[in-house]
Amino acid sequence: AQSVAQPEDQVNVAEGNPLTVKCTYSVSGNPYLFWYVQYPNRGLQFLLKYITGDNLVKGSYGFEAEFNKSQTSFHLKKPSALVSDSALYFCAVRDSGDYKLSFGAGTTVTVRA
Amino acid sequence: DAGVIQSPRHEVTEMGQEVTLRCKPISGHNSLFWYRQTMMRGLELLIYFNNNVPIDDSGMPEDRFSAKMPNASFSTLKIQPSEPRDSAVYFCASSSSGMIYEQYFGPGTRLTVT
Q: What is the pLDDT of residues A70-80, one digit of tens each?
């Protein structure tokens, strides 16, 4: 079985400050990890993924995420947040032997000017 | 590429009516997924197609729901008869075949059943 936990329902940061959105996962095999962002009344947009290799992956809009196998985490980060980053963020995991993508409950990010 | 296309974007219908949601995946993608999003249950996978064949429909809530993929460029999700508890946003997503590939989502159809 595979699952994802996003421990924070909401994250609030000031513009220009670092942004971190937390994600932990559970899989029986090797994890394939993904981050998506959803703006109001829009579909989910793919940000980045970890499949193998370098633990630090870079994605769209200046976002990056670090894969930590020992802590089973895949936290999303951005060094300097923008007001336009305010949205709903989803972490997702797929076990390497499964087609199904399991999504977390989502974290609402609010960046104040 | 235009991305995943869904229609209609909004649908308001009365209980008991038939509802058909449509999806055009990204050209060249072999896998297609239908999801439902609600505040209470988050994102739920309803059905997964690979090469136009339904692989897993275990997420389809009940017999009132059915999905088809007659060709590589078109899929439908039908609800008959519709009920108020079906009100949700329905997303279609597509991807290349293979576990390493990300899914690309359409803009969704917001369904309201009164």
A: 999 999 999 99
State the CB neighbour count (10 A cutoff) for residue B69: 20
- The model's pLDDT over B23-73, given as tens digits with 9 standing for 90+, comes to 999 999 999 999 999 999 999 999 999 999 999 999 998 899 999 999 999
Contact B106, B48 (CB under 8 A): no
| CB–CB contact B103 A51 (8 Å) | no
Chain B segment 90-109 residues within 8 A of A by beta carbon are 91, 93, 99-100, 102-108
So what's the pLDDT on residue B38?
A: 94
Closest C-alpha to A24, from A63, A55, A89, A68: A68
CA angle A75, A88, B77 (to 5 degrees): 115
Place of tokens 């976002």: A63
Q: Which DSSP state fits A38?
A: E
Could B50 and A98 be called an inter-chain contact, meaning their C-beta atoms sit closer than 8 Å?
no
First to last CA, chain B: 36
